């Protein structure tokens, strides 16, 4: 047990320098599901307004809504196709109003119909009043792919034709009053679709897909409709997002089909200035610029350097200067999946909108520049109230051992708990306390940048809990996190909850590649986050020789090679409860390995709670 206890006591502290970019504001707006699918499965748009508010178009009811910086709805408007068929496929937000665009198979009120599907663009003022609608097209089908705003109006880009001839592209510029300035229609045998656009005072940039779908191009038209230049990307590169400024354009793309966000800087003539690989991201967000550099966003399945991971895919935003030198990174999320939608850059904040779990829309304001932390006030880094075993944030469970990261949390040197003679666990160590809704939690250890505690059992039944750190009488700002019934994480010897699991073999020795377990033997696996025991017991007392078992059911499985297609081998769980004579919250799972268990130095080991899915963690066990 000595090595297990030393892990809980924090001797394997995270080796990381935390990036403390502050989140200045954050809110979530719930929306209903539609036809059994989350609302965001259809075309949807959630765009920051640049001042902390959000404009949201919801396709199921064709509602357009605006929210202020606190998430309060300011107004709601409705878009209607009447008896016609159509779709809103793009939205953009400017200081003077909101633009919607799409296609329709008939004449909208006050408009003329040209045939098949027409394109349209409409504008609402900042208070939700409909100002004007333009419908236009050809006798063939016209589909809007995107719109791009510029100071002199709105560019509408899309495709046309294809039913009786080659597919064409169109670009239309309308002024802010809805008057057509110019339209360009062209058939380009090498380009069959528009895959994104952005505009500024010099004109409009758009990405295109080639007929062979093996190459993307970037093309620019000036503000009077002249075709200036075309830039061809590398084979199999995929353009994701564009952001122009007065020196050229930043183009974010995946190179050669790889999920690595890459940014290429082109000047005003279409010549490459530089290219930088940024970060791996399996779901890209937008790129934006404020004239001093650029911001990229996406989704990560792990903790980025200096950040904490909440689980199932976090959103990140990175800021770079104009030479692609990094300035800061901010990762945030919940225990569920999120993805970013748009970025708007304000005077002091970068506003990020996106879609979260259970049919929700979020807006997060991140400060553009962070002053250096000064003074003695403790600071909890957002998302960094973590399961002490797998280092996942996103919530807590009663009795879970958590690790908290930040600054000024406690003394410079780590101080570990020293139970009293009767087994009491202190709630104050070296002048430091960790509070859950004001209740002092039993402490495992405290230090300047990392401390650990046992979540009080009293949080059970709550939906959220407020977490604060107090050191020498000075309290941190509160961080509010969700409360779950259970949140199991397995202790391991690798970084951030990976690698060799904390396992004791049947003979009492520590499992390792040099000391493997035998098939059909019983091993003990150590974890935390199982929730309340039965009976619950107390959270500030060293457990006895007969600790409580847990109300949930756990399974243990082995995999032959870690792939999704490989068969799994179920171990028989013979005990699931507290670890005897240890701190509350340390979970022991005794499992008999199957006789035909796969063998190796690093056999994938999965734990989960019925009826939930497998714990989001990759650990291994040695079996020979």
Describe this protein with a few key phrases.
nine-stranded mixed β-sheet, five-stranded antiparallel β-sheet, mainly beta, elongated, 624 residues, 1 helix, 49 strands, 4 domains, Immunoglobulin-like, 1% helix
Provide a compact summary of the structure:
The protein is mainly β and 624 residues long. Helices cover 1% and strands 50% of the residues. It folds into four domains: 107 residues, Immunoglobulin-like, CATH 2.60.40; 143 residues, no CATH class; 154 residues, 7 Propeller (Methylamine Dehydrogenase, Chain H); 135 residues, no CATH class.
Radius of gyration equals 28 Å
**CATH topology-level fold name of the largest domain:** Methylamine Dehydrogenase, Chain H
The averaged pLDDT comes out at 90
- Shape field: elongated
Shape-level CATH architecture of the largest domain: 7 Propeller
The CATH homology group name of the largest domain: YVTN repeat-like/Quinoprotein amine dehydrogenase
- Determine the fraction of residues in helical runs and give it as a percent range: under 10%
Explained architecture:
By secondary structure, the chain is mostly beta strands. The protein has 4 domains: 2-13 and 376-470, Immunoglobulin-like (Sandwich), CATH 2.60.40; 21-73 and 283-372, no CATH class; 79-232, YVTN repeat-like/Quinoprotein amine dehydrogenase (Methylamine Dehydrogenase, Chain H), CATH 2.130.10.10; 489-623, no CATH class. The protein is 1% helix and 50% strand. The chain contains 1 helix and 49 strands. Strands 39, 40, 41, 42, 45, 46, 47, 48 and 49 form a 9-stranded mixed sheet that branches. A hairpin with a 2-residue loop joins strand 18 (238-245) and strand 19. The model is unreliable at 9-17 and 33-43 (pLDDT under 50).
């Amino acid at each position: 047990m000595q090595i297990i206890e030393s892990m809980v006591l924090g001797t394997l502290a995270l080796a990381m320098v935390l990036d403390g970019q502050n989140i200045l504001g954050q809110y979530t707006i719930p929306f209903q599901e539609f036809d059994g699918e989350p609302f965001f499965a259809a075309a949807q748009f959630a765009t920051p307004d640049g001042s902390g508010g959000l404009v949201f178009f919801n396709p199921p009811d064709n509602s357009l809504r605006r929210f202020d910086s606190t998430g309060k709805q300011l107004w709601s408007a409705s878009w209607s196709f009447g008896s016609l068929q159509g779709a809103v496929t793009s939205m953009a937000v400017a200081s003077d109003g909101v633009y919607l665009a799409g296609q329709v198979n008939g004449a909208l009120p006050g408009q003329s119909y040209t045939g098949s599907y027409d394109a349209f663009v409409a504008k609402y003022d900042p208070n939700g009043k409909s100002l004007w609608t333009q419908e236009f097209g050809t006798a063939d089908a016209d589909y809007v792919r995107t719109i791009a705003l510029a100071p002199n109006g709105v560019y509408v880009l899309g495709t046309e034709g294809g039913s009786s001839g080659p597919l064409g592209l169109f670009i239309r510029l309308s002024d802010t009053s809805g008057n057509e300035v110019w339209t360009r229609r062209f058939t380009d045998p090498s380009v069959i679709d528009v895959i994104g656009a952005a505009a500024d005072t010099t004109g409009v940039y758009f990405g295109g897909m080639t007929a062979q779908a093996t190459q993307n191009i970037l093309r620019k038209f000036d503000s009077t409709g002249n075709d200036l230049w075309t830039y061809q990307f590398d084979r199999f590169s995929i353009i994701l997002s564009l952001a122009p400024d007065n020196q050229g354009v930043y183009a974010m793309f995946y190179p050669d089909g790889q999920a690595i966000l890459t940014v290429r800087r082109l000047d005003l003539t279409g010549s490459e200035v530089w290219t930088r690989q940024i970060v791996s991201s399996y779901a890209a967000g937008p790129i934006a610029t404020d004239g001093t550099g650029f911001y990229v966003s996406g989704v990560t399945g792990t903790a980025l350097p200096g950040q904490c991971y909440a689980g199932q895919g976090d959103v990140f935003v990175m800021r770079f200067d104009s030479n692609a030198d990094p300035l800061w990174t901010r990762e945030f999320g919940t225990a569920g999946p999120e993805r970013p939608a748009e970025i708007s850059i304000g005077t002091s904040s970068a506003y990020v909108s996106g879609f979260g779990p259970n049919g929700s829309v979020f807006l997060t304001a991140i400060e553009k520049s962070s002053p250096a932390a000064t003074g003695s006030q403790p600071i909890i880094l957002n998302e960094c109230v973590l399961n002490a075993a797998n280092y996942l944030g996103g919530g807590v469970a009663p009795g879970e051992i958590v690790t908290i990261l930040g600054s000024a949390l406690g003394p410079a040197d780590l101080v570990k708990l020293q139970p009293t003679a009767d087994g009491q666990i202190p709630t104050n160590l070296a002048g430091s306390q960790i509070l859950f809704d004001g209740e002092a939690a039993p402490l495992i250890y405290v230090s300047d940048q990392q401390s650990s505690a046992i979540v009080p059992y009293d949080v059970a039944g709550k939906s959220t809990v407020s977490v604060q750190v107090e050191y020498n009488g000075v309290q941190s700002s509160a961080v509010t996190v969700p409360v779950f019934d259970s949140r199991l994480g397995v202790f391991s010897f690798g970084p951030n909850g990976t690698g060799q699991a904390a396992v004791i073999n049947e003979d009492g020795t520590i499992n390792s590649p040099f000391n493997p377990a035998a098939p059909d033997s019983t091993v003990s696996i150590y974890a935390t986050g199982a929730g309340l025991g039965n009976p619950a017991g107390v959270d500030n007392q060293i457990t006895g020789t007969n600790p409580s078992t847990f109300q949930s059911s756990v399974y243990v499985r082995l995999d032959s090679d870690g792939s999704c297609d490989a068969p799994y081998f179920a171990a028989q769980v013979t005990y699931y409860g507290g670890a005897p004579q240890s701190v509350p919250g340390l979970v022991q799972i005794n499992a008999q390995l199957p006789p035909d268990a796969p063998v190796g130095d690093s056999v994938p080991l999965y734990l989960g709670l019925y009826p939930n899915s497998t714990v989001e963690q990759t650990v291994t066990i040695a079996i020979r």
